[in-house]
Please model this.
Amino acid sequence: MKYEEIRGEIRAGTAARTLPAWARGVLGGILDGIAADGGPPVPAVRHPLGFLCLPVERSGGLGVCLHLWTPEVRPAPSTTSAVHCHSWDLLSFVLYGTVRNVRMDVQEAAGEAAGGAARQVFEVVSEGDVDELRATGRAVRCSPRRSTAHRTGESYTLPAGVFHSTLIEDGMDAATIALGRQIPGGGDLSLGPLGTPTHSVRRSRSDFADTVRALRRSVRRIAAAQCSARR
Model:
């Protein structure tokens, strides 16, 4: 399936019947490729937000990824924080687990108010495997606003430009199919320490053995979720 097909399944309310089997097929195909060639045909990136990212489609301003939160893979270290916003509209379907999104209220913090708990806005500019986090000098304060939990078989949206953080509930296991549609003029932003300068971070690939364990675990979790849904 491509972006528009997956989006169509979600919009039609048929995703819970079709997308888990599709995701299992994608993961199974990667595992088959590993068995045949000795290496993953899809790069498995350890994301600093805590998940393993498997890119499935990149076409113009559209993208499809599988995001796996799993104890099999350590998250990449983060130089900023979990509070961020995208330059793209996000539509996600939860394959298993519970994903909680906490939207943040972000306000300018000027003058003396810029001290204490204030954070700096970083612009994230990606080129290949390198993310440049550009310190903007813009000081802000943020506070939780609205929190929503999304469980197995549910979908959710997050518009571009909305600051949020994502938490995994009920253990360390969850997986989503993430659809992104680039919005012209938007930016990828992250909040971090005030004193941190502009710096670059190279995206790290997951260890080969860890990736295999994570994919196998995810295939089992999707199958178990499908069985539970049929009862």
Summary: Residues 15-37 form the longest helix (23 residues). The chain has three helices and 14 strands. The chain has a mean pLDDT of 91. The longest strand covers residues 130-150.
